[in-house]
Amino acid sequence: MTTVYTGYPARGARAKLRALGAPMAVVGGLGVCCAVVWIGDPTTPGGFLPVCPTKALLGIDCPGCGGMRMAYSVMHGDIPAALHYNAVSFVIVLLFVWSIIAWTVGRLRGRPVNSWLHWRWTPLAFSVVFVVWFIVRNLPFAPFTALRV
Amino acid sequence: MTWPYPQYPPPSGPPPETNLVWAILATIMCCVPLGIVAIVKANQVNTLWYQGYHAEAQRSADDARKWAMWAAISAAAVVALYLLAAFLVFVLLGVSLWGAAR
What we know:
Chain A is mainly α and 149 residues long. Chain A contains 5 helices and no strands. Chain A has one domain (13-147).
């Protein structure tokens, strides 16, 4: 398998297109997901978008619960609502925007560009945030009950 | 990539791709327990690499990808079962309603 990481920047339309192919596929896929969420409107109950299986089966909020409502709110410019639905996922979306840009730039330059995904403490920090967020938003007393969605 | 002298770690050289991105995506969007295993495996890659354990680092990176893949497969299976169940309920409801209407 050949790689786009040749050590030299992509020159010419053909090489550029090859470098941009995978990022464009990812952005396209994300666009389809966004369109589905926009049409489905998860903030209004009873739509065709399914409830998170964890919530449906166990009745608890998983770390990702509220993610689709968060995305819907972001797309409608309602950042406070987005933070209410899932603040951690909102931050993670921003982080992934960063890493997608870094990945795309790296492919065009022919040399990988590192982002937060390559930091040494990222796996540990992500795990800690994930577990703490999971616990905190299910605590049955104030002020944590406000985190329920 | 295998290094011919594992007991003498070279001072430089980039570590292998940790596949952390797949581990994180699998944890968020798919199966949480399997995704956590993938994150732990991805976490080991750089540590092992800078300690000179190159083959082990590569194996951890491969394991991280494998666990993330299984997380995605299990999530896909759950979604498929969900859709199947929804479809069956829909069909049964339709049949019974149709029977009642006759």
